[in-house]
C-alpha cells in the first residue's frame, strides 16, 4: 500500500473512532453514510479498531470501550505470591477428578496444575505455553495443547484455528484470567485473545474468572463480548470494593467463600448443563 493510501486509511479510522467515542452506539450503515465509504470498508475498519482496543463491535455497529474497575490499591503493584496462592486455593474445590479443564492464558491459570486432583481421568487443555511445563510435570491424565498461532514474544495460543479447535473437546470447566470488569454493564475485560476466550466461555459447561489487575494500567484493556452473567464463578484477590460488589449483585452473584484474602463469588442460579462431576460449591 502506498504511503498516501496508508495515510488516508489511518485518517479514516481515526475519524471513525472519534465518531464512536462521541456516541454510545453507532451503526455500520450510519458510519458508511457519514464517512462516505462502503459498509464492507467500515466493517474492516471496525475490526482493526477493535483489535487495537479502541472500540467494541456489537449488534451491527460499534460502541466506545468504557472505563473498568479492577481490585487494586496500587494500580501498578503486582499481586503478592500469597494472593495468587489464595486465589488458586479457591478454585480447587470446584474441580472434579474426571473433568476436562481448559486453562486460559495468564499467570494465574498457569499456576493451577500442581493443585488439581491427582487423577488419570482429569484432562487438561492448554492455551498458553506458560502453563505447559507445570501441566506436563503434575498432571496424571492427558494434556492437550490447543492448536493455533503463537506470536513472537507471547506465550498465548490464539487465532482462528485455535477457536475452531475448541469444538473438538467436551469442556467441563474453563478457567480464565480477566483484568477488570466494566461498570455498569458488567462486561469482562482481558489482555488476551477476545475471540478465543469468548468462544471458550460459550463452549464450557462452567467458567471461572480470576480477576488479576497486574496487566491493567490507566490505558484501556479490551472488552470481551461477554458479561458477568455469562460466567459462573468469579475469584478476586481481595474485597473488590463497593463498585464491583454492586455490579456483582446486579449480575446475580453472591459472596460464596473465602480463602484467606481471596474471595469467591458464585452466580445465584447456575445454568443447567450436564457435566462429569457436579460442582457443588
From TrEMBL:
<keyword id="KW-0804">Transcription</keyword>
<keyword id="KW-0812">Transmembrane</keyword>
<feature type="transmembrane region" description="Helical">
    <location>
        <begin position="91"/>
        <end position="112"/>
    </location>
</feature>
<dbReference type="Pfam" id="PF08220">
    <property type="entry name" value="HTH_DeoR"/>
</dbReference>
<dbReference type="InterPro" id="IPR014036">
    <property type="entry name" value="DeoR-like_C"/>
</dbReference>
<dbReference type="InterPro" id="IPR036388">
    <property type="entry name" value="WH-like_DNA-bd_sf"/>
</dbReference>
<keyword id="KW-1133">Transmembrane helix</keyword>
<dbReference type="Pfam" id="PF00455">
    <property type="entry name" value="DeoRC"/>
</dbReference>
<keyword id="KW-0805">Transcription regulation</keyword>
<dbReference type="GO" id="GO:0003700">
    <property type="term" value="F:DNA-binding transcription factor activity"/>
</dbReference>
<keyword id="KW-0472">Membrane</keyword>
<dbReference type="InterPro" id="IPR001034">
    <property type="entry name" value="DeoR_HTH"/>
</dbReference>
<protein>
    <recommendedName>
        <fullName>HTH deoR-type domain-containing protein</fullName>
    </recommendedName>
</protein>
<dbReference type="InterPro" id="IPR036390">
    <property type="entry name" value="WH_DNA-bd_sf"/>
</dbReference>
<dbReference type="InterPro" id="IPR050313">
    <property type="entry name" value="Carb_Metab_HTH_regulators"/>
</dbReference>
<feature type="domain" description="HTH deoR-type">
    <location>
        <begin position="9"/>
        <end position="64"/>
    </location>
</feature>
